[in-house]
Every structure is written in C-alpha cells, then in structure tokens.
Amino acid sequence: DADVTQTPRNRITKTGKRIMLECSQTKGHDRMYWYRQDPGLGLRLIYYSFDVKDINKGEISDGYSVSRQAQAKFSLSLESAIPNQTALYFCATSGPTSGRQETQYFGPGTRLLVL
Amino acid sequence: KNEVEQSPQNLTAQEGEFITINCSYSVGISALHWLQQHPGGGIVSLFMLSSGKKKHGRLIATINIQEKHSSLHITASHPRDSAVYICAVGTNFGNEKLTFGTGTRLTIIP
After folding, report:
1. Of A2, A103, B40, B88, which residue is the least packed, with the fewest Cβ within 10 Å?
2. CA distance B84 to chain A (A)
C-alpha cells in the first residue's frame, strides 16, 4: 500500500461549491504539506503543518483552508471553488523533525476541475 | 526572476545518450532536491544534496554551492527515463519549505 494517499484522485465540481481533498500517510511523519501544480508553473505551497497543533500559510493560501485532524491526516478545503483553482493538487510529508532538510514524499495527486 | 531556474525546459534524446539537466538558484540554500514526475503525475524524490555528488544507479546529481548550480545526469538513457525532472531548493535548515523550478520535460526516443 502507498505510504501517502490522497482522495479523491479526480474531482469535477462547479463554481461556488465547497470541496475537501484528503491526505493520509502511514510514514509516521510530523510534517505535511499541500501544493498545487499548474501547467508551466512550479509546485506552489498552499499550507503546511509541522505537527497537529501547528498550521501555517504558504505562498498561495487565499481561497483555501486546512485541517490537521491527526498526525496522519491533513485535509485541504476549498470553501467556494472558482475556476482558477483548477489544478493538480499534491500532498507531501517529511520527517522526523530533525533540524535539517528531509526528503519529501508525495501522494499521487488529485486532479481538480472547477467548472 | 524565479529563485530556481531549470534548463532546458524540454529535451528530446535518443536512447543511450548521456543526459544533463541543469538547475540554477539565486538564494542561499540548506539543500537541493531533484524530483521525478512520471507521465501519470506521481512525484518521486530522486536526490537531496547539500554538497558534492550523489549517485543512484544511472542517475548522478552534483551541486556547486559557490556557483549556486546543480546538474542531474542520466547515463545510458532509456525510454523509461522519460519524465519531468524538477529541481527544488530548501532555504532554511529544519524548515522543509521548498521552492520549485518549473521542470524539464525529458523524452527518450527508442
């Protein structure tokens, strides 16, 4: 089984709808991240969490919110989806917290289309 | 100017050729990462390095901290190496926030 899973893998929704993307990991990592990927752009950080009580905004957090329900679960919500949120979304994890750079492990991605 | 620049953006080569993908960055870093994104979209970490050189199978990654430059080499390239290769830098020790390049799309023709 995959260490980092994302659900759903594909989602089509309409403008104004609220949707949630979920991420679960079995790696025992403390640090979790949500990124979006758009054609021609690098991955951009939406939110990140260094433990259950620590949530931080990334460079493009407007229009998104997150919830860290447990060490293993990190959910991304679009409160009112808009078409320019159409993108490929990735969850990633890293750890343990060590005071140095660690490899990030990515989920398979969620392809979101907002009509 | 982006903090992380990759070149070339696209690369097509024949099977067996030696491949080089370059990454330049403009900030001080704690580590540089090379990632591979498969045609299906999944992303896998290939290397993390902060100095010198690392090798894994046919892949070699080098970094020159003074010149703020890294290269990813693939020897004896194979069609299964076709993917997007992404360079990312981390700028703070203990804080794994990464800044990503836009990727190099590599196509290996049989």
Report:
1. B40
2. 11
pLDDT tens string A60-93: 999 999 999 999 999 999 999 999 999 999 999 9
pLDDT tens sequence across A21-45? 999 999 988 899 999 999 888 899 9
Integer Cα distance of B87 and B50 in angstroms: 13
User: Among partner residues B41, B90, B100, which is closest to A101 by beta-carbon distance?
Assistant: B90
Residues in A closer than 8 angstroms to B96, CB to CB, are 31, 94, 101-102, 104
Give dist(CA A63, CA A114) in Å, integer.
Answer: 13
> What six digits make up the tokens of B73?
């080499």
Q: Which SS3 state, helix, strand or coil, does residue A84 take?
A: helix
